[in-house]
Write a structure and sequence with these properties.
This protein is mainly β. It is built from five helices and twelve strands. It has a domain of about 160 residues.
Protein backbone atom coordinates (compact mmCIF):
# COMPACT_ATOMS: atom_id res chain seq x y z
CA UNK A 1 0.00 0.00 0.00
CA UNK A 2 1.30 3.42 -0.90
CA UNK A 3 1.33 6.20 1.66
CA UNK A 4 2.81 9.13 -0.25
CA UNK A 5 0.97 12.21 0.96
CA UNK A 6 -0.81 14.09 -1.80
CA UNK A 7 -1.51 17.12 0.42
CA UNK A 8 2.17 18.11 0.56
CA UNK A 9 3.07 20.09 -2.58
CA UNK A 10 6.63 21.11 -3.56
CA UNK A 11 7.36 24.29 -5.29
CA UNK A 12 9.69 23.00 -7.86
CA UNK A 13 7.73 20.51 -9.72
CA UNK A 14 4.33 21.90 -10.19
CA UNK A 15 5.46 25.07 -11.77
CA UNK A 16 5.72 23.20 -14.94
CA UNK A 17 2.05 22.61 -15.27
CA UNK A 18 0.76 26.09 -15.53
CA UNK A 19 -0.53 25.83 -19.01
CA UNK A 20 -2.77 22.82 -18.79
CA UNK A 21 -6.07 23.07 -20.60
CA UNK A 22 -8.83 20.82 -21.78
CA UNK A 23 -9.30 21.76 -25.42
CA UNK A 24 -7.30 22.50 -28.55
CA UNK A 25 -4.90 20.78 -30.92
CA UNK A 26 -2.03 18.78 -29.37
CA UNK A 27 1.56 19.54 -30.33
CA UNK A 28 4.02 16.98 -31.67
CA UNK A 29 5.42 16.67 -28.13
CA UNK A 30 2.20 15.02 -26.96
CA UNK A 31 3.15 11.84 -28.82
CA UNK A 32 5.92 11.33 -26.25
CA UNK A 33 3.44 10.95 -23.37
CA UNK A 34 3.20 7.17 -23.49
CA UNK A 35 6.97 6.78 -23.46
CA UNK A 36 7.29 9.10 -20.45
CA UNK A 37 4.93 6.93 -18.42
CA UNK A 38 7.41 4.07 -18.47
CA UNK A 39 8.66 5.55 -15.17
CA UNK A 40 7.27 3.53 -12.27
CA UNK A 41 5.04 5.29 -9.81
CA UNK A 42 6.90 5.61 -6.46
CA UNK A 43 5.62 3.40 -3.66
CA UNK A 44 6.46 2.77 0.01
CA UNK A 45 5.90 -0.13 2.35
CA UNK A 46 5.11 2.10 5.35
CA UNK A 47 3.90 5.60 6.15
CA UNK A 48 6.72 7.79 7.55
CA UNK A 49 4.14 10.43 8.54
CA UNK A 50 1.89 8.14 10.59
CA UNK A 51 2.74 10.11 13.74
CA UNK A 52 2.60 13.91 14.08
CA UNK A 53 5.83 15.72 13.29
CA UNK A 54 7.26 17.79 16.14
CA UNK A 55 9.51 17.52 19.12
CA UNK A 56 10.17 13.91 20.00
CA UNK A 57 8.77 13.16 23.49
CA UNK A 58 11.44 12.86 26.15
CA UNK A 59 11.00 10.14 28.75
CA UNK A 60 11.34 11.41 32.29
CA UNK A 61 13.90 9.52 34.36
CA UNK A 62 12.52 8.92 37.88
CA UNK A 63 14.84 10.15 40.63
CA UNK A 64 15.89 7.50 43.10
CA UNK A 65 15.29 8.24 46.79
CA UNK A 66 18.51 8.26 48.86
CA UNK A 67 16.80 7.62 52.20
CA UNK A 68 18.66 10.56 53.79
CA UNK A 69 16.66 13.12 55.77
CA UNK A 70 17.64 16.52 57.08
CA UNK A 71 17.48 16.71 60.91
CA UNK A 72 16.29 19.91 62.61
CA UNK A 73 16.77 19.96 66.46
CA UNK A 74 13.96 21.24 68.65
CA UNK A 75 14.36 24.53 70.61
CA UNK A 76 14.85 22.55 73.86
CA UNK A 77 17.64 20.50 72.28
CA UNK A 78 19.37 23.63 70.99
CA UNK A 79 19.17 25.29 74.47
CA UNK A 80 20.61 22.22 76.20
CA UNK A 81 23.44 22.07 73.67
CA UNK A 82 24.30 25.75 74.23
CA UNK A 83 24.52 25.28 78.03
CA UNK A 84 27.20 22.62 77.58
CA UNK A 85 29.48 24.88 75.47
CA UNK A 86 32.45 26.68 77.19
CA UNK A 87 32.32 30.46 77.39
CA UNK A 88 34.02 32.43 74.67
CA UNK A 89 37.74 32.87 75.40
CA UNK A 90 37.63 30.24 78.19
CA UNK A 91 39.82 27.18 78.44
CA UNK A 92 38.71 23.67 79.08
CA UNK A 93 39.93 21.97 82.27
CA UNK A 94 41.11 19.08 80.18
CA UNK A 95 43.32 21.23 77.98
CA UNK A 96 47.05 21.17 78.68
CA UNK A 97 48.70 24.52 79.37
CA UNK A 98 51.87 23.24 77.71
CA UNK A 99 51.48 23.72 73.96
CA UNK A 100 53.73 20.73 73.32
CA UNK A 101 52.06 17.37 73.19
CA UNK A 102 53.29 14.38 75.12
CA UNK A 103 56.35 12.98 73.41
CA UNK A 104 56.88 16.22 71.48
CA UNK A 105 60.23 17.96 71.03
CA UNK A 106 61.15 20.40 73.81
CA UNK A 107 63.40 22.36 71.50
CA UNK A 108 60.48 23.65 69.46
CA UNK A 109 60.52 20.86 66.93
CA UNK A 110 64.09 21.35 65.67
CA UNK A 111 65.26 18.42 63.52
CA UNK A 112 67.59 15.91 65.11
CA UNK A 113 71.20 15.62 64.02
CA UNK A 114 71.53 13.88 60.69
CA UNK A 115 67.89 14.48 59.82
CA UNK A 116 67.25 16.41 56.61
CA UNK A 117 65.50 19.69 57.15
CA UNK A 118 62.14 20.14 55.36
CA UNK A 119 62.32 17.09 53.11
CA UNK A 120 60.52 17.69 49.78
CA UNK A 121 57.89 15.12 49.00
CA UNK A 122 57.27 14.45 45.29
CA UNK A 123 54.27 16.33 43.97
CA UNK A 124 51.42 14.03 43.02
CA UNK A 125 50.93 13.73 39.28
CA UNK A 126 47.41 14.48 38.00
CA UNK A 127 45.58 11.49 36.70
CA UNK A 128 45.01 11.54 32.94
CA UNK A 129 41.53 12.74 32.03
CA UNK A 130 39.78 10.61 29.46
CA UNK A 131 37.99 12.60 26.79
CA UNK A 132 34.29 11.91 26.70
CA UNK A 133 33.10 10.57 23.35
CA UNK A 134 31.01 12.96 21.28
CA UNK A 135 27.29 12.26 21.53
CA UNK A 136 25.68 10.82 18.39
CA UNK A 137 24.49 13.43 15.93
CA UNK A 138 20.83 14.26 15.74
CA UNK A 139 18.87 16.32 13.28
CA UNK A 140 19.53 17.02 9.62
CA UNK A 141 23.20 16.83 8.63
CA UNK A 142 25.24 15.46 5.75
CA UNK A 143 24.39 15.05 2.07
CA UNK A 144 21.17 13.54 0.72
CA UNK A 145 20.18 12.49 -2.81
CA UNK A 146 16.63 12.32 -4.18
CA UNK A 147 15.08 11.04 -7.40
CA UNK A 148 11.73 9.86 -8.76
CA UNK A 149 12.30 6.22 -7.76
CA UNK A 150 11.30 6.88 -4.12
CA UNK A 151 9.97 10.44 -4.20
CA UNK A 152 6.98 12.27 -5.61
CA UNK A 153 7.02 15.74 -7.19
CA UNK A 154 3.83 17.08 -8.73
CA UNK A 155 1.66 20.12 -9.31
CA UNK A 156 -2.08 20.64 -9.19
CA UNK A 157 -3.71 22.94 -11.75
CA UNK A 158 -7.27 24.09 -11.09
CA UNK A 159 -9.99 25.08 -13.54
CA UNK A 160 -11.76 28.40 -13.04
CA UNK A 161 -15.20 27.45 -11.72
CA UNK A 162 -16.57 30.88 -12.66
CA UNK A 163 -15.91 30.32 -16.38
CA UNK A 164 -19.00 29.80 -18.55
CA UNK A 165 -17.99 26.32 -19.80
CA UNK A 166 -16.13 25.14 -16.70
CA UNK A 167 -18.28 22.01 -16.64
CA UNK A 168 -16.40 20.78 -19.73
CA UNK A 169 -12.94 21.39 -18.19
CA UNK A 170 -10.93 19.43 -15.61
CA UNK A 171 -8.59 19.93 -12.69
CA UNK A 172 -5.19 18.39 -13.39
CA UNK A 173 -2.41 16.55 -11.54
CA UNK A 174 0.98 16.40 -13.27
CA UNK A 175 3.97 14.44 -12.02
CA UNK A 176 7.66 14.97 -12.74
CA UNK A 177 9.73 12.01 -13.90
CA UNK A 178 13.47 11.42 -14.41
CA UNK A 179 14.41 14.29 -12.10
CA UNK A 180 17.20 14.59 -9.54
CA UNK A 181 17.74 16.60 -6.37
CA UNK A 182 20.49 17.09 -3.79
CA UNK A 183 20.16 18.43 -0.25
CA UNK A 184 23.33 19.27 1.69
CA UNK A 185 23.43 20.19 5.40
CA UNK A 186 27.17 20.23 6.23
CA UNK A 187 27.88 19.68 9.94
CA UNK A 188 24.23 20.40 10.70
CA UNK A 189 24.67 24.16 10.09
CA UNK A 190 21.49 25.58 8.60
CA UNK A 191 23.31 28.64 7.27
CA UNK A 192 25.41 26.40 5.02
CA UNK A 193 22.56 24.32 3.60
CA UNK A 194 22.18 23.76 -0.14
CA UNK A 195 19.17 22.35 -1.99
CA UNK A 196 19.03 21.94 -5.76
CA UNK A 197 16.33 20.33 -7.89
CA UNK A 198 16.26 20.07 -11.67
CA UNK A 199 13.46 18.44 -13.65
CA UNK A 200 12.96 17.97 -17.41
CA UNK A 201 9.87 19.78 -18.66
CA UNK A 202 9.29 17.46 -21.62
CA UNK A 203 9.10 14.41 -19.34
CA UNK A 204 6.21 15.64 -17.20
CA UNK A 205 3.44 13.03 -16.97
CA UNK A 206 -0.10 14.40 -17.28
CA UNK A 207 -3.10 13.09 -15.32
CA UNK A 208 -2.04 9.46 -14.89
CA UNK A 209 -4.77 7.55 -13.00
CA UNK A 210 -2.59 6.87 -9.91
CA UNK A 211 -1.73 10.55 -9.56
CA UNK A 212 -5.32 11.72 -9.94
CA UNK A 213 -6.44 9.28 -7.26
CA UNK A 214 -3.61 10.43 -5.02
CA UNK A 215 -4.85 14.03 -5.02
CA UNK A 216 -8.49 13.03 -4.60
CA UNK A 217 -9.90 13.25 -8.14
CA UNK A 218 -12.51 10.53 -8.67
CA UNK A 219 -12.56 10.59 -12.48
CA UNK A 220 -10.09 9.40 -15.11
CA UNK A 221 -9.17 10.94 -18.46
CA UNK A 222 -8.68 8.99 -21.66
CA UNK A 223 -5.26 8.74 -23.27
CA UNK A 224 -6.37 11.03 -26.11
CA UNK A 225 -7.51 13.67 -23.60
CA UNK A 226 -4.21 13.43 -21.75
CA UNK A 227 -2.21 13.81 -24.96
CA UNK A 228 -4.22 16.91 -25.85
CA UNK A 229 -3.71 18.46 -22.41
CA UNK A 230 0.01 17.73 -22.55
CA UNK A 231 0.25 19.54 -25.87
CA UNK A 232 -1.31 22.67 -24.35
CA UNK A 233 1.01 22.48 -21.33
CA UNK A 234 4.17 22.42 -23.47
CA UNK A 235 2.97 25.05 -25.97
CA UNK A 236 4.94 28.22 -26.68
CA UNK A 237 2.59 30.44 -24.64
CA UNK A 238 2.77 28.07 -21.65
CA UNK A 239 5.86 26.12 -20.48
CA UNK A 240 7.47 26.27 -23.93
CA UNK A 241 9.33 23.01 -23.46
CA UNK A 242 11.35 23.38 -26.68
CA UNK A 243 12.97 26.65 -25.58
CA UNK A 244 13.05 26.07 -21.79
CA UNK A 245 13.65 22.33 -21.26
CA UNK A 246 14.22 22.40 -17.46
CA UNK A 247 12.68 23.81 -14.30
CA UNK A 248 15.23 24.55 -11.57
CA UNK A 249 15.27 25.43 -7.89
CA UNK A 250 18.35 26.53 -5.91
CA UNK A 251 18.29 27.26 -2.17
CA UNK A 252 20.05 30.32 -0.74
CA UNK A 253 19.48 29.75 3.01
CA UNK A 254 17.75 27.47 5.52
CA UNK A 255 16.56 27.64 9.11
CA UNK A 256 15.71 24.77 11.45
CA UNK A 257 16.64 21.11 11.16
CA UNK A 258 17.47 20.29 14.79
CA UNK A 259 16.20 17.04 16.23
CA UNK A 260 14.94 13.84 14.64
CA UNK A 261 11.83 15.57 13.26
CA UNK A 262 10.44 19.06 12.88
CA UNK A 263 10.40 21.81 10.26
CA UNK A 264 12.91 23.39 7.91
CA UNK A 265 12.33 26.67 6.11
CA UNK A 266 14.16 26.87 2.77
CA UNK A 267 14.57 30.14 0.87
CA UNK A 268 15.75 30.16 -2.70
CA UNK A 269 15.06 30.93 -6.34
CA UNK A 270 12.86 29.01 -8.74
CA UNK A 271 13.33 29.30 -12.48
CA UNK A 272 10.53 28.57 -14.96
CA UNK A 273 10.51 29.54 -18.62
CA UNK A 274 13.87 31.25 -18.04
CA UNK A 275 12.42 33.62 -15.42
CA UNK A 276 13.51 33.41 -11.77
CA UNK A 277 11.38 34.24 -8.73
CA UNK A 278 12.30 34.10 -4.99
CA UNK A 279 10.26 31.62 -2.94
CA UNK A 280 10.24 30.26 0.61
CA UNK A 281 9.21 26.66 1.27
CA UNK A 282 8.24 25.38 4.72
CA UNK A 283 9.05 21.68 4.94
CA UNK A 284 8.21 19.02 7.45
CA UNK A 285 11.04 16.55 7.93
CA UNK A 286 11.64 13.26 9.67
CA UNK A 287 14.77 11.08 9.89
CA UNK A 288 14.25 7.32 9.99
CA UNK A 289 17.29 5.02 9.84
CA UNK A 290 19.48 7.59 8.06
CA UNK A 291 16.81 8.35 5.44
CA UNK A 292 15.51 11.91 5.29
CA UNK A 293 11.81 12.39 4.53
CA UNK A 294 10.59 15.82 3.43
CA UNK A 295 7.16 17.12 2.55
CA UNK A 296 5.62 20.54 2.20
CA UNK A 297 3.60 22.80 -0.04
CA UNK A 298 4.14 26.03 -1.89
CA UNK A 299 1.42 28.08 -3.61
CA UNK A 300 2.60 30.04 -6.64
CA UNK A 301 1.04 31.98 -9.52
CA UNK A 302 1.52 32.13 -13.27
CA UNK A 303 2.29 35.84 -13.01
CA UNK A 304 5.40 35.16 -10.91
CA UNK A 305 6.98 33.64 -14.02
CA UNK A 306 5.67 35.99 -16.67
CA UNK A 307 2.80 34.15 -18.37
CA UNK A 308 -0.97 33.73 -18.13
CA UNK A 309 -3.12 30.69 -17.29
CA UNK A 310 -4.42 28.60 -20.17
CA UNK A 311 -7.72 29.78 -21.69
CA UNK A 312 -9.84 28.83 -24.71
CA UNK A 313 -13.06 29.88 -26.49
CA UNK A 314 -12.70 33.51 -25.46
CA UNK A 315 -12.28 32.57 -21.79
CA UNK A 316 -15.29 30.24 -21.62
CA UNK A 317 -12.76 27.60 -20.50
CA UNK A 318 -9.79 28.77 -18.42
CA UNK A 319 -7.52 27.82 -15.53
CA UNK A 320 -7.07 29.64 -12.23
CA UNK A 321 -4.11 31.92 -11.61
CA UNK A 322 -2.96 29.91 -8.57
CA UNK A 323 -1.05 26.63 -8.65
CA UNK A 324 -0.18 24.27 -5.80
CA UNK A 325 3.13 22.48 -6.10
CA UNK A 326 3.57 19.38 -3.99
CA UNK A 327 6.23 16.95 -2.98
CA UNK A 328 6.80 13.97 -0.74
CA UNK A 329 10.49 13.05 -0.77
CA UNK A 330 12.59 10.19 0.56
CA UNK A 331 16.37 10.37 0.34
CA UNK A 332 18.34 7.51 -1.16
CA UNK A 333 21.37 7.84 1.15
CA UNK A 334 23.03 10.03 3.77
CA UNK A 335 26.76 10.61 3.18
Amino acid sequence: MNYLNHSAPIALLGLALFGVGACGQPSEQSTQAAASEATEFPDREFDPWAEPVGEEPQEETPQEETGERVYFPSPEEREAANEGQPEAGGQSNNEEANPTEEGGDSNGGAPEEGQEENPQEPEPQPEPVEEEPEPPRTGVYGDYDFDDADSLLYVQVFKDESAFASGFAHNHAIRASNWEGQFSYPNGRAEDCALTVSLPVNELIVDEPQMRRRVGYDDELSQSQRNEIRGHMLAENQLNGDRFPTINFTATSCTGGEGASGRISVRGNMEIRGQSSPVTISLQYRIIEDSLYLRGELPITHAQFGFRPYRAFGGAVRNQERLVIGFDLQSNTRN
